[in-house]
Amino acid sequence: MGVTMGLNLLLLMAMVATNILSLYHLSSTLQTPKPPTPQPVPDHLLHQLHTLRATINHLTRDHPSPSTATAKTTKPDIPSDLLLYSQLSPIASSCHNHPDLVHKYMTYTPFSLCPLDSDLAEALILRGCHPLPRRRCFTRTPPKPTSSLPLNPFPPSLPDSNVLWDKYSCKSFSCLGGKNPNLGFDLPHEVSNFMSYKSELDLPIPQLFQIAKAANSVLRLGVDIGGGTGTFAARMKLYNVTVVTTTMNLGIPNNEAVALRGLVPIHAPLQQRLPVFDGVVDLVRCGHAVNRWIPATALEFLLFDADRVLRGGGYLWLDKFFSKGVDLEKVFGPLIGKLGYRKVKWATANKNDSGGIKNGEVYLSALLQKPVSK
């Protein structure tokens, strides 16, 4: 007790002495116009200052302010499986920009059925969170799938029972085909695509093979970027050419349709690096999804990624790329020209639908051959 009182008295005297010294220093400063010469701070005072700062920091960490505590309580907890996966493998940096979506995607019961959240997965993928974190749950499958699947990539119809329709407005392929035959689900309508020459913009597949044959070039492997339901890959399969299709669902079962046709869907957005090794494919086709809505810089990266996977002598096919006429001349044409490819085909035509007429848009169909060496 006596020691404590003595220590408190000593601290009180030190505080009073410090205040008196401060008042004296202030009065002398006011009386003298000449600024005082700064005196060095004694080492023991510096040590005390550092001790005080350390104590304040410690108290702040252990006893946060009410506003900080409130913020921490309202922040959602990080799912345990997301924390676990982050210790095993890094996730895409863009995932950190959308923590609420990532937390929702990773909030599930491990070792049980996965949630029906394919729309949430695509929302993250389209925001650049790709590849998604892996999950330890079982993918849901249709309760009564058909026992056999068609070998023909152009069957009369696709089996509805092999798709989980819960997330789709239509509940059958016939509904989708009837709603819009251009979506790619009306297979009798699709069977004639890529086979006939209707305008300068068309490049029928038989003509493509003639071009390759004349150049002593072989077509065996290809990538169809933004290929929808996989009709181009289906047609090339009949020519014994393997084509993988990058496609997104966006409210319709594109990936399911590609797979049911005996083809390989790659669930990847246009901004994603192609999951293919360098210089191994003979053909890259950019379908209707590749158009002027893609920012020029993003399109430039996409084209150079296509160049990365193409072998020397391989072909890049821009199939009915559309943009404003002035942009094709001043932006996209020079951008494509940066590749330094040989122009096998370069055809343009006006886009005559209502949007094309309103915006002064044109189509471009181009077949470009990559140099054998650079």
From TrEMBL:
<feature type="domain" description="Methyltransferase type 11">
    <location>
        <begin position="223"/>
        <end position="317"/>
    </location>
</feature>
<dbReference type="InterPro" id="IPR053223">
    <property type="entry name" value="Prob_Methyltransferase"/>
</dbReference>
<keyword id="KW-0472">Membrane</keyword>
<dbReference type="InterPro" id="IPR013216">
    <property type="entry name" value="Methyltransf_11"/>
</dbReference>
<keyword id="KW-1133">Transmembrane helix</keyword>
<dbReference type="GO" id="GO:0008757">
    <property type="term" value="F:S-adenosylmethionine-dependent methyltransferase activity"/>
</dbReference>
<protein>
    <recommendedName>
        <fullName>Methyltransferase type 11 domain-containing protein</fullName>
    </recommendedName>
</protein>
<dbReference type="InterPro" id="IPR029063">
    <property type="entry name" value="SAM-dependent_MTases_sf"/>
</dbReference>
<dbReference type="Pfam" id="PF08241">
    <property type="entry name" value="Methyltransf_11"/>
</dbReference>
<keyword id="KW-0812">Transmembrane</keyword>
<feature type="transmembrane region" description="Helical">
    <location>
        <begin position="7"/>
        <end position="26"/>
    </location>
</feature>
